[in-house]
Amino acid sequence: KGKAKKAAKTATKDIKTAAVLGAGIMGGGIAYQSAYKGVPVVMKDINQDALDLGMKEAGKLLEKAVQRGKMDTKKMAKVLSSITPTLLDDAVKGVDIVVEAVVENPDVKGKVLADVESRVSDDAILVSNTSTISIDRLAKNLKDPSRFCGMHFFNPVHKMPLVEVIRGEKTSDETVAAVVAYASRMGKTAIVVNDCPGFLVNRVLFPYLAGFAGLIDEGVDFAGIDKVMERQFGWPMGPAYLTDVVGIDTADHCTKVMADGFPTRMPRDENNAIAKLAAADRYGQKNGKGFYEYG
Ligand code: NAD
């Protein structure tokens, strides 16, 4: 009586080769981390200087690993040679996954994703490292959105342990499983979240930063707030320093996206302390001046 129920089980797609589009801060870091953990990667950009810089940064991280006794020079050479920098669109052919990490612009990302889908095999997975653009919006550019989701890394990629895997409305379970497995292979902890402005981490972070900006507007000293968060709360860095690390322009942009997404929960204050610094071209560590100055 009653047949034993068997769960239909499909094997999780094994990611053996990857491509990263964009060799900037994030793309370069993602390519390095993939290669370091044994998944060879094609690193594609439209700019040779970006590719050179991406390779240089990967080389620096590997040299540090050698100095710290984490690997020998033979392994270092092997990892470096498993990153293939290229300007060629067709270099993505045959890879198992493509991680899109080009500029944060929905039109550019849409074009890049549609183009790449036409070049990869029918079972390749596409992911976007977008920080703010809706995964469902990006998915509209694709013929097969079931093989697409978000894969949101944090900066610096080689240090930050978390990756958000963002499931779009049409993302298949197989795609989510394969991307989670790839994140683990890269030594990261993956969390699967639904598509919404800010996903999970930025949805928590930006209301906090908006609260911080509000305190400054009321005249509280930002360095004092950092001290409280670091010394009394035990956080690794306070909100002013964190915003300098993230990039004040990026933080300002994300604050606006979050306020648009959650108008009843997040203040949209065009003129808060973060917006004012961004307008004064103080972008944080990336240009040497933000809340603090960097020599
Ligand atoms: P970046 O400006 O450092 O790099 C972007 C790279 O994309 C550049 O090298 C540019 O030449 C390249 N590019 C532009 N168009 C291209 C195309 N058509 N094909 C291939 N390459 C192209 O930017 P970034 O900070 O690395 O950000 C990349 C993505 O990662 C964005 O979506 C951003 O929101 C997201 N992100 C950034 C951070 C961060 O802290 N910087 C964190 C998480 C996610």
Key traits:
11 helices, binds nicotinamide-adenine-dinucleotide, N-(1-d-carboxylethyl)-l-norvaline Dehydrogenase, domain 2, 295 residues, alpha/beta, eight-stranded mixed β-sheet, Rossmann fold, 8 strands
* Morphology call: globular
Strands across the major sheet, in which order?
A: 3-2-1-4-5-6-7-8
Residue windows where pLDDT falls under 50 for at least 5 positions: none
Radius of gyration: 21 Å
Tell me the CATH architecture of the largest domain.
3-Layer(aba) Sandwich
Question: What is the assigned CATH homologous superfamily of the largest domain?
Answer: NAD(P)-binding Rossmann-like Domain
Enumerate how many helices there are, as a single number: 11
Question: Which structural class do the helices and strands define?
Answer: alpha/beta
Average pLDDT, all residues: 94
Name of the CATH first level of the largest domain: Alpha Beta
Strand/helix succession: EHEHHEEHEHEEHEHHHHH
State the separation between the terminal residues, measured CA to CA: 77 Å
- Tell me the β content: 5-15%
Q: What would the CATH topology of the largest domain be?
A: Rossmann fold
Named once each, the bound ligands are: nicotinamide-adenine-dinucleotide
What does this molecule look like?
With 295 residues, the chain is of the alpha/beta class. The protein folds into two domains: 18-194, NAD(P)-binding Rossmann-like Domain (Rossmann fold), CATH 3.40.50; 202-287, N-(1-d-carboxylethyl)-l-norvaline Dehydrogenase, domain 2 (Orthogonal Bundle). 44% of the residues lie in helices and 13% in strands. It has eleven helices and eight strands. It has helices at 25-36, 48-67, 73-81, 106-119, 135-139, 173-185, 201-217, 222-232, 239-246, 248-261, 273-279; strands spanning 18-21, 41-44, 83-86, 97-100, 125-128, 148-152, 162-167, 189-194. It has an eight-stranded mixed sheet, with helices on both faces. Helix 5 (135-139) links the parallel strand 5 (125-128) and strand 6. Helix 2 (48-67) packs antiparallel against helix 3, helix 7 crosses helix 10 (248-261) and helix 10 crosses helix 11 (273-279). It binds nicotinamide-adenine-dinucleotide.
